[in-house]
Structure formats: structure tokens, C-alpha cells
């Protein structure tokens, strides 16, 4: 199994937020009103969401952030077959209780190399932007998108299929939902009636020599055969090594919660300076009116925040006094406040996860060059325990288990790296050996891990080809 990028891992968010009341304040209209995939202009009727109460309350929900990050749901982890590291074609499933990985196909004698296979996602030889699957609402969706603009050429293909969670009964849901020949990545969200494909792309350089980063949203009905609807389009100009960016945080009631990062007005002279001078604001994007709301006041800090991160539908912050607090980003109300919990010498690094009434936060002690992981009990407002570092990188540096996937009840963790020697053939035909490492993964119930248990089950994975 390939190593998974965790920095963008998104979990299902479980707290309820009323998003329909969040568009107070001015509205910013997108620079270009998008057309439907067939090129015709959209009408209010075609863009309308299912009828719902103005005060409807929904779950802020993210399904899958795409790329090589797997999707966990219902006790299973879905990702492309690791035997095709550079040409993924079939879905596998890792049982998050036993740690056993299997091909998502139970047909006797199936070679897993054609569309007759229940695990099949896409044909070989494509220049892929995204290949994989995610489970939502008792159904399994599999996605195949090519990127001829940034890959090896070929045709633009975008396809979503739906099946039962075991892979059987595969049906085409939607085709041709990517609007141009570029697709860097897709974040997938869902509500009761729709899937939302939030597409990041980079179509190319314009006549001014500028590179436009594009963010589009496709709203795809869950009914097979229904066409995708392009509801919003936004472009930014890339300057040097930085670009404005629009990132999605969740969806509910036909509205997205997004963060907009803007560059400083003038280049500071360094990339680090530009990052430090950039600003990030939180907005509601209404997909029915195709308008981006004014910045939500609750996201704007006063400069004293040493840490802020969205999780569980809330904005969590740690200030200079060590107070851990959670703010409803849509109302500005403080929902949780735990004073004097965070150790003064510790730099907060990120939220590991929110499990019921327990929040797990990672920190870093610069003086000792050590990682730390703390479990906070939100009911008592206390620091419950510190979780131990369980393995050593290169036998020297202590390391915490890294979260690979989470379905809310079970965790998949990276718990070790084992040194191995690999063999390859050089350009001159000579056999070359080189040192490398294999990641070791394990599964454990979330509650057990939060209690400090290391009694996890090592995963049994499908063999990977040498590359």
C-alpha cells in the first residue's frame, strides 16, 4: 500500500449547523456566470435545489478529499489497488476491524483486469487526475477522471458510477462533469439529494502569461442518468510560487462553507513572507444564487491566536494563555471553552480528531524536538491524558502513530517503518540495490486508542509490485 498524504485528510463531520441563516451581509457575485455542461445557460429552475425549509438544519459533511487519500465508511477503507501504484484500476477494501485488505470483488476466478470485475474503476493507460471510490448513504461511488492537459495527452474523461457497498450492481451515474481539460484534484461532498464535486484545475497560461487556478462546483443528483450541473466558477491568478485559493470545509442545504486565501497586495520578497502576509477568510457559498458571502466575522482573529482549525463543524483555537475554545464559525458563538489546558511550552500542530466529547490535539515541543498528543475531555474541561510515541524513525527520533483513516469508530494508523532493500534495473541494464522502507499499518477501535491502548491489529495488505 502506498503511503498516504494525511495533511488533507477530511473526516465526516458530526455536529449540526444551521447554514441557511449564514448569508447575512453583502454578497459577492462571481466574475463569470457558468453554463451547463452542454454549453446552454442555466435557468433558476435548473439550478434550484430540492425544496426545504429556510431554517433547515443539516450536517456539515465532507465525504472524500480525493487524490491518494482513502475514504473510510461503515467499517471499510476504500482505495485503489496498491498493485497498480501508477495505474490504479480496481478498488480494494480494508476491514477496519481485522485490518485485512481484499479486492472489492467476490467473483470466483476474476482476474480483476476488465470492466467485468466488480472492483473495476477505469481502464489501463489513462493519464489520471483521480481514481478511487467513497461510500456515502449506504452506496459506493467510484470516480475516474483523466487530465490530458497535465498528463500524457489523450481524451478528457470524467465518470461517476454507483453500486452497493460490496461492489455489486454497478450503474453509471454521471459522465462529462469536468468542464475543461484540466483537473488537479476533486473534493467530494454530499447531502441528502446531491453529490458535490469541488474541482481544482489549472487550465494553462493566458495571453498575459498568467496561470489561472480554477475552482468549480458540480452538483450531481444521486439519481442515475441525471446530468451534472455546473453551479459556480471562480478563478484566481497565480503569481510566482503562490496563488489565491478556495478550499471547501463542508456542505449543507445547498450551501458550501469555504475558506478563501488571498495574497498580499505586493510581493514581500520571499515565499515565507508572502505566506505570512496572506489572509484567510471564511465564507458561505450559496450554490442556488451562485454568490459568495462576505467574510464571516468569527473567522477573523486578532493576531493573538496561535492555532486555529476547523473540525467537527467548529473553529477550534488556542490562544496565548493556553485556553482551548471552540467557536461556531457561522454565528460567532463560543460553544466550548477550556481555560489553561494547553501547556505553555507546546506549539499546537493540528487536531488529530474529535470523538464524541473527546478532542485529540497534536503539539510540538521545540526545546526537546518532540511530538506530543493530548486527549481533552470536553465534559470536564480537563486534560485527560497524553498518548505515547510508539515508534522511532531511523531508530532515533520518537514518532506518534500517524492517522491514515477514520470511520468515526475505528482508526487505521501508521505504527512503524521497517527498513528494506529494494532492487531495480538501471538504464545500463545493471541490477542496482538501494535502501528503502515499508510502512506498517494497524487498526484499532478509536475508544481503545484514546484510552492509551497499543493493542492494535497489524494490517494484512495485498502485495505491491516492485516499481
UniProtKB/TrEMBL annotation:
Residues 1-24 form the signal peptide. Residues 28-54 are annotated as: Disordered. Residues 40-54 have a biased composition (Low complexity). Coiled coil: none annotated. Keywords: Signal. This is Lipoprotein. The keyword Phosphoprotein does not apply. It comes from Gemmiger gallinarum.
Amino acid at each position: 500500500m502506498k503511503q498516504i498524504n494525511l495533511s488533507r485528510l477530511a473526516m465526516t463531520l458530526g455536529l449540526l449547523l444551521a447554514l441557511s441563516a449564514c448569508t447575512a451581509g453583502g454578497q459577492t457575485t462571481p466574475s463569470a456566470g457558468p453554463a451547463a455542461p452542454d454549453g446552454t445557460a442555466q435557468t433558476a429552475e435548473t439550478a434550484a435545489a430540492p425544496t426545504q425549509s429556510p431554517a433547515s438544519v443539516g450536517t456539515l459533511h465532507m465525504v472524500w478529499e480525493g487524490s491518494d487519500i482513502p475514504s473510510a465508511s461503515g467499517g471499510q477503507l476504500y482505495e485503489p489497488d496498491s498493485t497498480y501504484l501508477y495505474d490504479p484500476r480496481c478498488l480494494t477494501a480494508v476491514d477496519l476491524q481485522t485490518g485485512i485488505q481484499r479486492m472489492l470483488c467476490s467473483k470466483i476466478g476474476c482476474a480483476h483486469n476488465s470492466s467485468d470485475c466488480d472492483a473495476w474503476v477505469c481502464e489501463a493507460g489513462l493519464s489520471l487526475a483521480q481514481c478511487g471510490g467513497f461510500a456515502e448513504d449506504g452506496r459506493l461511488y467510484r470516480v475516474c477522471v483523466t487530465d490530458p492537459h497535465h498528463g500524457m495527452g489523450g481524451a478528457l474523461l470524467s465518470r461517476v458510477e454507483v453500486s452497493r457497498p460490496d461492489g455489486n450492481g454497478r450503474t453509471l451515474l454521471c459522465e462529462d462533469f469536468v468542464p475543461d481539460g484540466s483537473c488537479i484534484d476533486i473534493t467530494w461532498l454530499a447531502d441528502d439529494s446531491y453529490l458535490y464535486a469541488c474541482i481544482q484545475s489549472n487550465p494553462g497560461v493566458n495571453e498575459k502569461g498568467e496561470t489561472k487556478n480554477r475552482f468549480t462546483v458540480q452538483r450531481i443528483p444521486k439519481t442515475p442518468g441525471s446530468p451534472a450541473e455546473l453551479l459556480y466558477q471562480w478563478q484566481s491568478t497565480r503569481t510566482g510560487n503562490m496563488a489565491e485559493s478556495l478550499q471547501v470545509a463542508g456542505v449543507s442545504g445547498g450551501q458550501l462553507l469555504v475558506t478563501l486565501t488571498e495574497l498580499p497586495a505586493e510581493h514581500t520578497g520571499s515565499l515565507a513572507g508572502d505566506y505570512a502576509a496572506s489572509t484567510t477568510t471564511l465564507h458561505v457559498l450559496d450554490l442556488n444564487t451562485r454568490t459568495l458571502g462576505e467574510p464571516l466575522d468569527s473567522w477573523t482573529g486578532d493576531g493573538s491566536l496561535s492555532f486555529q482549525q476547523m473540525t467537527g463543524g467548529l473553529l477550534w483555537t488556542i490562544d496565548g494563555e493556553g485556553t482551548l475554545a471552540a467557536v461556531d464559525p457561522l454565528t460567532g458563538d463560543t460553544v466550548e471553552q477550556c481555560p489553561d489546558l494547553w501547556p505553555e511550552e507546546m506549539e499546537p500542530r493540528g487536531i488529530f480528531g474529535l470523538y464524541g466529547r473527546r478532542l485529540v490535539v497534536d503539539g510540538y515541543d521545540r526545546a526537546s524536538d518532540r511530538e506530543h498528543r493530548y486527549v481533552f475531555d470536553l465534559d470536564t474541561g480537563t486534560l485527560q491524558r497524553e498518548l505515547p510515541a510508539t515508534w522511532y524513525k531511523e531508530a532515533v527520533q520518537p514518532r506518534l502513530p500517524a492517522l491514515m483513516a477514520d470511520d468515526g469508530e475505528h482508526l487505521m494508523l501508521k505504527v512503524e517503518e521497517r527498513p528494506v532493500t529494494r532492487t531495480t534495473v538501471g538504464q545500463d541494464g545493471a541490477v542496482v540495490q538501494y535502501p528503502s522502507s515499508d510502512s506498517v499499518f494497524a487498526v484499532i477501535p478509536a475508544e481503545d486508542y484514546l484510552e492509551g491502548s497499543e493493542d492494535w491489529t497489524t494490517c494484512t495488505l495485498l502485495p505491491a509490485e516492485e516499481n
